[in-house]
Amino acid sequence: MFPFETMSAKMLDDYVGRKDALIIDLRGQEEYEKSHVKGAFNMPYERYMETGSLSMELSKGKIFVFYCDRGGASLKVAKELAVKGYRTRSVIGGFHAYRGRNLVISG
Q1: Domains in the chain, start-ordered, CATH in brackets?
Q2: Distance in angstroms (rounded) separating the CA atoms of residues 106 and 83
Q3: 25 touches 95 (CB < 8 A)
Q4: Is 52:46 a contact under the CB 8 Å cutoff?
Q5: Which helix (H) or strand (E) is 89 found in, with range?
Q6: What region holds the Rhodanese domain (predicted)?
């Protein structure tokens, strides 16, 4: 079992584009489409709760960085997956706290 870690929102930019990391946005699809972190995959938290999985193949060699709106949902998912042996990070304060350089805003 890997311990999960928390990280500040400003550290999120350090994971963008890394081959060993996958950034997952747990907010709803509408919120994701309005704006998200560059390269982040959208997996709404509600869908995760319904299925109990992320509906994608997870490699235990990757670091999974989760963010949601304010940090509560990402903390829960990061903890659950860490118990299953995945390397996870949860962004403190979520997307609400993110003010980084890799922000994608859809028109």
Answers
A1: 5-105 (3.40.250.10)
A2: 35
A3: yes
A4: no
A5: strand 87-91
A6: 17-107
